[in-house]
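Hi, here's the filled form for the chain we discussed.

Project: internal
Contact: R.S.
Residues: 226
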Amino acid sequence: MNRHAHFFLWLRWIGANALAEMLGLGATFVLDALILTRVAAAHSITASLLGIVGVAATGALEGTVVGLLQWAVLRRAFPAIARRARVLATVAGAMVAWFLGSLPSTLMDMGSQEGAATAAEPPQALVLLMAAGMGLFLGAVLGTPQWRVLRQAVRGAWIWIPANCLAWALGMPAIFAAVDRAYPAYEATGSIAVAVAIMALALAITGAIVGAVHGLALVKLAQQKS
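And the returned structure, exactly as it came back:
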């Protein structure tokens, strides 16, 4: 592959990730909202634990959409990577990430059900910093199963894990910021369509940011392979 081919690989990768997160993560958010609404209405620790399992299961939806759209780009540069292997690796990483990501809020909710005092909401800057830390950790969770597949097709695939960490350290705050904007927009306008549009745009931007970052690692791997 020449320089132009590598550049277009990067652009296709950004586009695939933008679409994948808008569709996959967006649909997962909808399912999770339904699950968490029922959990909140139940007011029980059992319901909270079942909610964690339910949220983790919805990660399969995001993983499938992301895995398929990423593979559609990968197959040209890395034909040795099978679609099934890539999708299953992405699903596994997404489910574990959703499980771990839902634990803190669920445990805090369980604590409040037991009579603990409700903590004050932290400043947005601190929330975004915590989101970046979460993205750094969950990026490794998402990237490790994919690395196990990628290393069978190219040497030096280990860079995929730190690339995912950096990508999601930048992408996760964008998601938190979008949620922080979407709900007030809904309250102000009373329009679900406005809130959905804000989230859809934000998720597409998040996917593009994430794709642009770990897409650089992908291009590096494609360069050394060619």
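Let me know if anything looks off before we file it.
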